Each structure stands twice: as C-alpha cells, then as structure tokens.
Amino acid sequence: MNFPVPLALTFRTVGWPELLVMLAFLALLLGPRRLGGLGRRFGEFFRVKLHVIQWLYWSATGNEADQLRAEERVGQDISNAFTGQTPLEPDESKQELIRALGGKLSEAVAGTQRRFHFRVLADRDFQAFAVPGGFIFVNRPVLDHLQESPGELAFVLAHEMSHVIERHTLERHLRDAILDAVLKPWLAGRLVSAVLARGYSREQELDADAEAVNLMMRAGFAPESAVGALEQMARLRDVDPTLGRYLGSHPPLADRIAAAQALCASMRRRATPQRGPAPPR
Prior knowledge:
The protein is mainly alpha-helical. It has helices spanning 5-9, 16-61, 64-85, 92-107, 140-146, 150-165, 168-171, 174-183, 191-197, 202-219, 224-236, 241-248, 253-271, and strands at 117-121, 128-131, 135-139. It contains 13 helices and three strands.
C-alpha cells in the first residue's frame, strides 16, 4: 500500500538531523532562557526522584550510615521545596539563636550518626515541624513568643528532633507526602500543607514530649522548661489564633502539661541522692 508522502514520513526513524531541527524550533519558540529552564526542571525532577528511590532502597537493605545519607538527601530536597515556597527569616540573629540551641541539643543525642539542621522561616503562623534527614523548621512567631526563655525554645526544637530520633517522620505522615509531592511535580506547590496535614498520633506526640525532656536534661537545660513552654502556649492560645491551629494537631495541653510535670518530678527524684538508714550507734 502506498501512503501519501506526508503520512509516509511519519513512519521514518527520527535521526539526528530531525532532532536538531526540532531543538532549533523549540529554541526559536521558547527562547534560550525558557529552553534552558525547561531542561533544568526536568533534570531536577529526575534527580529528586532518584533520591527518593535510593532512600526507600537503603531504608530496607542498608546499614545505618547508608540509610542516613539517603534520608538526608531526600530531606535536603524537601527543605529546598519549603524554602522555595516560604523564604527564610532574614534576621540572621534569629537563625543563629536556633542553630546554637539546636547544636547544643544535637551534641546530647546519643548513639547515632544523624546530623540535624535548623531553619527559621519567615512565616506568620506559629508552627514547628521536622522532615526526614534531621531538618527542623520553626516559624518566626515561635521565637517571638518563646525566645525570652532559651529552655522553652529548646523544648520546641527537642520535641521536633524527637520525632526524627524516634523515626515518627518515616513511620507515619511523611512517606506518602514525599512520594506524592516529590514524584508528582504538579503537587509540589502543596508540599507544606501536605506535610502539616498529616498529624502524628497521640502516643507519638506524648513520646516526643518525653524524649524531648530527656534530651533537654542531657544537654544541660532544666527539664522544667518543657512545662514552662507548654504553659506559655496555653496562656497565648487565645492571643494568637495560629497557635490554636498548631496546638490542634497535638494532644490537649492539659494532658501534655500533666505528663511533663510527672516526668520532671520522676527525673528529679532519681537525680536526688537517697539517704540510707542511719548507722547503728
């Protein structure tokens, strides 16, 4: 059967001459800047996709060092997505404060090769959250409300670090969010809301509080600062409506305060030397 010439041409193998003509046409249509940007976006998409695949593979088969390296690469990709949507806080003194407190807490994390990274976002909502790879984010209002007490601010950081240490970020709400938002580029703009919409369980939140109190004590902070931070949030809940939304994803404050008070009292009792019976005369 003889096809008309235009239709017959569609069955030819596309070779280098045709590809060069097509690229030249795209360059004329899009311009060199847009064409270069398109190539960069495709390259970034496949690089991020590879990182996620490596992370899933090493999480199942690798040793701790392999798992942490792969997880940190994915965390860096997510961190870049966050800061691409919400800029970092421009006040370097705020960033330095968080890095200093976070560094002190990081030194007290025992038995792991994990590294932590701390960022302050220039966002008006009271919010703090963690993503895989040890990337901890706090929004500017967290510092505005708690920075007068370094210990109380350290509790917020320690709480988010504990979600990473206890692997809550991997076990629960981030795996699906990462796969959706990273592997499907049209969802990237919703990454922040996708992550924050997946809350932890009540048990995971209370576990993170308990681990945070222990971490604070090992780092040299008064464990009672955890109670102070929670009580300060209770006082400010009606003042800052975004604080109410943040607390809504956690167990009731009264339960968290009571648990923290009981844990602090138990830790103090263990730390206080017990007097033995009086020696016989």
